[in-house]
Automatic annotation (TrEMBL):
GO molecular function, one term: heme binding
Source organism of this protein record: Coraliomargarita sinensis
Entry-linked InterPro entries: Cyt_P450, Cyt_P450_B, Cyt_P450_CS, Cyt_P450_sf
Segments passing through the bilayer: none
Keyword 4Fe-4S listed: no
Protein name stated in the entry: Cytochrome P450
Family: Belongs to the cytochrome P450 family.
Length: 381
């Protein structure tokens, strides 16, 4: 049984890399689990010190500022990352967990009153946005603005990026406010922060803000919609989770492995490099193939099947090495609490209409979440 078809299966069997043409660039994507991990750790050979070029496709045309801390290398990266790290550690605190639990229960109360629910706009987006207010320590009402931006504020149809004017204006307003009257929130922390003994420039503050909003949005939304659709195909798995709450932990990891929303992330080779037998010139990019690595049969048995009890599960969905996802604890919490609430409260999920989001590239087509997903939920009685 194939739950998630892997478009990289044959390429990964044939060799360690594959060429991916992207907007005039020929990116060498590393495919195998061990090779991706080794490359992710080796920042001297595969550098992130490349503004706009860590995401694939690159984002020169859609933003004017370097994202922080992701588009930097050690040792600077370590200091940049430390500035925002405390915000991302909260996800382990009991009070924070209780807030997320109460949030999903409110959203399910609302959803269960409706005959049909459009999961992307009515569940995933508000869940992601409201939970982000907890992480950033801003009033929950701020989420209303973020929800009003809609799902496609950063991405247009077909996965193309839009210029982030809405976001940049919003971030500037928040930094202006924080400069006048600082509080305990994320924006205030940045206006008061120091890097190598000097305050941050506005551009640097925007670089942190841009990544936090853009990086934590589609990733969570795609995961949530994919999980909801999975239970339409596998209704018995809701009771499987309900029977033994410890299963939630393994199930969370497995969904995050299988529904990895970021196919690959870029690095630049500072000098001519032999990448597992393929020459890459100085200044050219490689891709760390997180999604292909998550389906490497040398590491994961039957990788195209979702096994909610899979253990161990050394997936690379949150990256590897110095840039390991700062939002990982928050993202894991959101998925685990979603699964808990669904298993406790929902008997069945029926998909009524689905518009899959497909990444169409020259070298692969990959399903990644949904543009829209209409479902009917049946409550447990
Ligand atoms: C970094 C994936 C959710 C913020 C990363 C990286 C990956 C990733 C693969 C490593 C990038 C690299 O090596 O260049 C994911 C996935 C998520 C998720 C799959 C959800 C399922 C979030 C959320 C936030 C976030 C919710 C914030 C609210 C960040 C930040 C970094 C990062 C700030 C940069 C860390 C650094 O450079 O040190 N993420 N992410 N992520 N992520 Fe996430």
């Amino acid at each position: 049984m194939q739950d998630v078809p892997d478009p990289f299966r044959e390429a990964r069997r044939a060799g360690p890399v594959m060429k991916c043409p992207f907007h005039g660039e020929d990116i060498t994507m590393i495919l195998r689990h061990g090779d991706v991990r080794a490359a992710a750790k080796d920042w001297q050979t595969y550098s992130s010190d490349a503004p706009f070029r860590v995401p694939i496709p690159s984002e020169e045309k859609v933003r004017s500022i370097r994202q922080l801390p992701i588009e930097t290398d050690p040792p600077e990266h370590t200091e940049w990352r430390a500035i925002v790290n405390p915000f991302f550690q909260q996800a382990k605190e009991p009070e924070y967990i209780a807030r997320v639990e109460s949030l999903i229960n409110d959203l399910l109360d609302h959803a269960l009153k409706k005959e049909t629910l459009e999961v992307v706009g009515e569940l995933a987006l508000p869940y992601q946005s409201r939970a982000l207010t907890y992480l950033l320590k801003v009033p929950e009402s701020e989420a209303n603005t973020w929800i009003d931006w809609g799902v496609h504020v950063f991405r247009g149809e077909g996965g193309t990026f839009k210029k982030g004017i809405v976001l940049e204006d919003y971030l500037n307003e928040q930094f202006d406010r924080a400069e006048k009257k600082p509080g305990e929130d994320f924006f205030s922390a940045l206006v008061q922060a120091n890097f190598q003994g000097r305050p941050l420039t506005r551009e640097e503050m925007l670089g942190f803000g841009n990544l936090t909003f853009a990086g934590g949005r589609d990733t969570i939304i795609h995961n949530v919609s994919s999980i909801i659709a999975y239970f339409n195909e596998h209704p018995s798995q809701l009771s499987f989770l309900r029977e033994e709450p410890k299963r939630l932990i393994h199930a969370t990891e497995e969904f995050i492995r299988a529904y990895m929303p970021l196919t690959q992330i870029g690095r630049v080779c500072p000098v001519d490099t032999n990448v597992l037998g393929t020459p890459v010139k100085a200044g050219e990019r490689i891709g760390l193939g997180w999604a292909p690595a998550n389906f490497d049969e040398a590491v994961f048995d039957d990788p195209e099947t979702i096994d909610l009890a899979r253990k161990p599960n050394p997936h690379l969905s949150f990256g590897f090495g110095k840039h390991l996802c700062l939002g990982a604890a928050h993202a894991r919490l959101l998925i685990r609490i979603l699964l808990k609430a669904l298993s406790e409260r929902i008997e069945g999920i029926e998909v009524i209409e689905a518009k899959a989001n497909i990444e169409h590239e020259k070298s692969f087509d990959r399903a990644n979440g949904f543009d829209s997903l209409m479902v009917a939920l049946t409550a447990r009685v």
